[in-house]
Amino acid sequence: MKIDCVGGGPASLYLAVLAKLRDPDHEITVHERHAAGDGHGWGVTYWPDLLADLYAHDPESARLIEEHSVRWRGGFAHVGDRTTAHDSDPGHAVGRHRMRSILADRARALGVRLEFGREIADVGELAGADLVVAGDGAHSRLRTAHADAFGTRVTRGANRFIWLGTTRVFTEFTFAFVETDEGWIWCYAYGYSDEHSTCVVECSDTTWRALGFDRLDHAESLRLLEKLFAAPLDGHPLLGRRDGESHARWQIFPTVTNAAWSHGRLALIGDAAHTTHYSIGAGTSLALRDAMSLAGALGRIAGPAELPAALAAYERERKQALLSVQSAARHSAQWYENLPRYMGLEPHQMFALLGQRHSPLLPYVPPQLYFHLDQAVGRLQALRWLKQRLGPRLARTLQSRRGADGGRSGE
Known about the structure:
Layout: E1 2-6, H1 10-22, E2 27-32, E3 43-46, H2 48-57, H3 59-67, E4 70-72, E5 75-79, E6 82-86, E7 91-95, H4 96-109, E8 113-116, E9 131-134, H5 141-144, H6 147-150, E10 152-156, E11 159-166, E12 173-180, E13 183-191, E14 197-204, H7 205-210, H8 218-228, H9 230-233, E15 238-239, E16 254-258, E17 262-263, E18 266-268, H10 283-299, H11 307-337, H12 347-355, H13 367-409
Parallel strand pairs: 1-2, 1-9, 2-8, 5-12, 9-18
Antiparallel strand pairs: 3-7, 4-7, 5-6, 10-16, 11-14, 11-15, 12-13, 13-14, 17-18
């Protein structure tokens, strides 16, 4: 088949790699509107289960991604002048530009054609393609042109955020919450190389306006943020976007859903198909898993005539897999939108509920009560674990001792 992927992000590039590995006769082109070498974003996070899947699908690109990633475990929360630590599952981070370069080089080596500097605005521009894959992001032009057919729905959050970098290398996933006279503002920060970290700043729209970010220019915004987060930044600067655009922009997160993921020969992938709030750190992982699923579906058909069935199977599989993730992302976003509700807690209590923010019950239970209930349940689970693991062993020990004592008493 002739496959054209629009958008040069991880989803499109990884799909091109996997589809070419399954069938070298596919004619695949990836179209990227930016010039070669341009790259936006900072670092992206992923978890060990994704790395295992990457190795299962293409060990070569997986090895390179792992080699260029950093690994962290646990985290810190700075709440005003107080700090608390928290243990957590290990995570990984890698520069988004580095990941794209690895996948682009891998795709090119397999015979995929990469075209840069041209924006595809309509599927009609790719008349010879059997399949056009829209991997052009949350604001996809290809999807928007057929929004009614896809049943696209976009809902916007309540908070403002800006995606930045910094030369402060955070070795743990770090949260910093700063109270100002105008309300709370906070950041999430994590290292992704030995030189840079990602730093995402968020606050309510009311606080954003009251602090003047609606009037400050880019440089002034960075200076104010550096002042507010001086302690965790430890003298390091914040950096704006690294791509063709002049600077990073404050945004409101768009949650994108689509009733259908394909329309004729046009299919959606990654953020063009769905978005999940950045606070759960799953966007890139979901995009790569979309590519795995779509490549698998294409690999099970004999040719273009069976394409509708393959696209339907891809949609079913990914929609089912996304249900729990989208629910977690929705509750996570709402937790931050209602942040003042939790800031009266002690830092370790607040951090514990931060880890429970995916719970659908949390918004309806007083935070202090929820914390104590969660702690009690945790202790019960620990006791159950001890009973399950140590109970049989202890019973056998007691039984053997009783048998020994009985034997001696009968002598």
